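Async update (no meeting this week)

Hi team, since we skipped the sync, here's where things stand on the single-chain job. The sequence we agreed to prioritize is pasted below, unchanged from the tracker. I ran it this morning and attached the output directly underneath so nobody has to dig for it. Comments welcome in thread, and please keep replies under the output.
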Amino acid sequence: MIITLSPSKGQDFETPIKKHKHTAPADLDDSQLLIKELRKIKTGELQAMMSISENIASLNVERFKQFKTPFTTSNARQAIFAFKGDVYGGINVENFSADDLDYAQKHLRILSGLYGCLRPLDLIQPYRLEMKTKLHNPRGSDLYKFWGERITDSINKELVRQQEPVLVNLASNEYFKAVKPKLLKGRLLNINFKESKDGKTRIVAIFAKRARGMMTDYILRNRIEKPEDIKKFKAGGYKFSKADSDDSQWTFVRPQPDK
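Output:
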């Protein structure tokens, strides 16, 4: 079983971490093609392209200039430790054992606009490049065209190695659009998280993000290989809702908290 997650805008390359194994992103040659295009863009253009502040645009223009290979633990950090935010707050990676990280390396894939299909221990350098960005590049007008079937091919290589060829999608729609479901060599299982209030259920983005991280943590720590075992997930008060689910989409519901 493979899990897909989105990356996070929030990143931490400063807080000290323990020494861990590390690997190189498989699509780093593609990343360098994008960096070549990104280095042509000035601060004002990047600000408009990404709908970000001038300060953030300036920061990322400098990041693109500083991008260099080879990646080492001196100039880069493992993706699972670098990404911060609502999703990654639910993954208690600081307390992962070496075995937990090894398992995550085989079962978790992070979809990135710059790096393609990342393993948790792949080294990355700081960046901001959302998958929806309309960046003209040698392969087309946006990142979906740039990555084409490459991300799907990477996932398929992992699916054939799994005990059960199932892709558990915990990524956002923006990032999962980079995957071609019809080309997947296995079952696709989409997961939703909903909040119940006043007799109605709905998706609340901030809560759904946190739940994706919690479920990822649950699957990795419990070494879950069979999809049916995911239904036992109850972190944060969520419970599997048979009435709101079908074979390709499972929904977990809880009473909506105050915040």
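Quick observations from my side:
The mean pLDDT is 96.
The longest strand covers residues 187-197.
Reply here if anything looks off.
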